[in-house]
Design goal:
This protein is an all-alpha fold and 150 residues long. Helix content is 79%, strand content 0%. The relative contact order is 0.13.
């Protein structure tokens, strides 16, 4: 029951973050359409006001790299579980399949986060990074559980 509530809470947080991201993206696109001239700011990227463009782009690249590394660890574990699954039957096979499915879902979430990080623009960078970190933490917990490192 706890895991179901945790999943519901995680889903709600993810949906809220995604909604905020979409609203922010729409607003940023409207601003770009209305004022494509960057002469007032001298900047052509959407780095947060308190951060220079180079730092912002470096942090985005680092975050994407960490997400991709997490995906690689998940892929490796899925491969291990697939190998194990071929040697068992019944409930053991079903349990392995459930672990694989959970890891595949986490991998999909990481793919979505990578896309969102690459497209991010705006001043909510600190909160956005925190949300991405929470997603990576969730994926790490699923990976630990599938590995037996609870």
């Amino acid at each position: 029951m706890k895991s179901l509530n945790f999943f519901k809470n995680t889903l709600v947080v993810g949906l809220c973050a995604g909604s905020l991201f979409l609203l922010s993206s729409c607003e940023n696109n409207e601003r770009r359409d209305d004022a494509s001239d960057t002469s007032t700011t001298g900047r052509d990227t959407e780095a947060p006001a308190d951060m220079d463009d180079a730092t912002y782009e470096r942090e985005k690249d680092e975050l994407v790299s960490r997400l991709e590394q997490q995906k690689e660890r998940i892929d490796a574990r899925i491969d291990e579980l697939e190998d194990q699954k071929s040697n068992v039957e019944g409930q053991a096979e079903e349990a392995l399949e459930q672990n694989i499915e959970r890891l595949e879902n986490q991998k999909d979430r990481l793919d979505q986060e990578i896309t969102q990080v690459k497209a991010h623009a705006g001043d909510d960078w600190a909160q956005f990074k925190l949300n991405v970190q929470n997603t990576m933490d969730d994926a790490g917990r699923e990976l630990d559980q599938a590995t037996g490192n609870n």
